[in-house]
Amino acid sequence: PIIFHTNGYEHSIWDDAMYPPRPVQGFLTNDQLQLLIQRRTSRVPLGSLTLSTSIAARPYQQRAIRRVSEAFEKKERRALLVIATGSGKTRTVISLVDLMIAGHLTRRTKFPATAGSTP
Questions:
Q1: What is the mean pLDDT of residues 49-68?
Q2: How far, in whole angstroms, is CA 3 from its chain's centroid?
């Protein structure tokens, strides 16, 4: 089951089959809960999928994607890529998102604006 627990002020969700408990701001809708449950069976291991070399063709980019994929397979929800300036971080992340969509881990991804970026 998907478990919600609260003390009346702070709320947490625990998908006991996939991830440890994490804080949330509110409760999920019925459709969102059904999607979480559906992803348990439709999920494809990221290591079994092929990377798109047309997006991230460099070997170090592909290694970075594989390492992040391994972290996600270990049920970690966060990963940090540290790559030198001009070496294709954007292409690497786009290829990672492409892999996650193919593996049914996500449907949409939002890239937050940084302090120095222009809209």
A1: 92
A2: 20
Helices vs. strands in the chain: H and E counts, helices first: 3, 3
Structure tokens at 12: 């947490």
Three-class secondary structure of residue 16 per DSSP: coil
- 84 — phi, psi (to 5°)? -60, 155
Residues forming beta bridges with residue 76, ordered by sequence position = none
- What is the rounded CA–CA span in Å between residue 78 and residue 43? 18
Q: Which amino acid is at 87?
A: S
What is the spatial distance between Cα 92 and Cα 94, in angstroms, rounded to a whole number? 6
Query: pTM of this prediction?
Result: 0.72
CA distance 15 to 45: 18
Task: State the CB neighbour count (10 A cutoff) for residue 28.
Answer: 14
